[in-house]
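Running this now, will post back.
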Amino acid sequence: MVLPVIMMLLSFVSLSCHNNLSSIEPAYGQGENFNNTLPFPSSSFQSKAAILDNMPSHNVTVDDINIAYKQIGEPDAKPIILITGSSATMDMWNPLLLEQLAFANYRVIIFENRGVGESTVGTKEFSISQFANDTLGLLDALGISKADVLGWSMGGMIAQELAVTNPERVNNLILYTTSCGGSNDRPTPPEVRQISINASMSQEERIQKLAPLFFAPASWFKAHPDYQNYFPIQAYIQSKEAISQEIHRQQLDAAANWTGTCSALSSITQPTLVIVGTDDDPAPDSLTLAEGIPGSWLIRIRDAGHGLMYQHPDEFNRILLTFLENNR
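Update: finished.
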């Protein structure tokens, strides 16, 4: 059952049980609150995103690939690893989230899945299980025995695979706009897949077509014509330039062919947060996860789509930090 929790810092949040879901009232904030001791001392979102993008990456050999990664925060702080979705580079993470995690004394590790960005393709077949093994290899290479894990979209599938197959390596688990896969999974909408793999489109055309779907609902998108001010647009363009259509197709197939964790959710014993926008998830995926994972938190944010962390950054960051601090 979803754990009912009173969150002092989130008086407007209502955590709900299975058949009585509440939503956070829509709000939009830029979240500008910077400290010069952190890597992002500038004021605008795009300048912070540019600083993240320009931070030098490191790489480490893990089995048959080299994995590119970046670390933010103190090296002796509590580790949290963030796993991206399909075709996304590590610089696609919201820099406001990374900043807040560093402020809260977390060692933040972001990286690129095999075949994406600066991480090499390797020789092994793409699968959610293989991506999970790659993530474990990165943790091993960094000397991290156990970490909090945040997975976004396909990254949420990888995070679940980690929690089920290697529970001793996962502390707290955050599943952001994802599903437990298998036969219960809703496939990527065909129009999204077609746009994503259409090699004849320019990056600008692709953004224009995908943005209304990513920043759902239509009312939010219409009310925020300046959405690019709060979205790492250059990282997005670079991510599309840094991944071939074939690699993107292989990642989509890996997610589609994943047998999933739906029948194993009850074995996930780590404190778990399921967070999603109501316009990205009509409820089946988030409900299945929350009902299946004992004691999990479920937060569904109104007027938000797959780009929830960009649409409502203040609320998203506050929820994550409240959950993590509650289970620290």
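Residues 23-326 form a domain with the Rossmann fold fold (CATH 3.40.50.1820). More later if anyone needs it.
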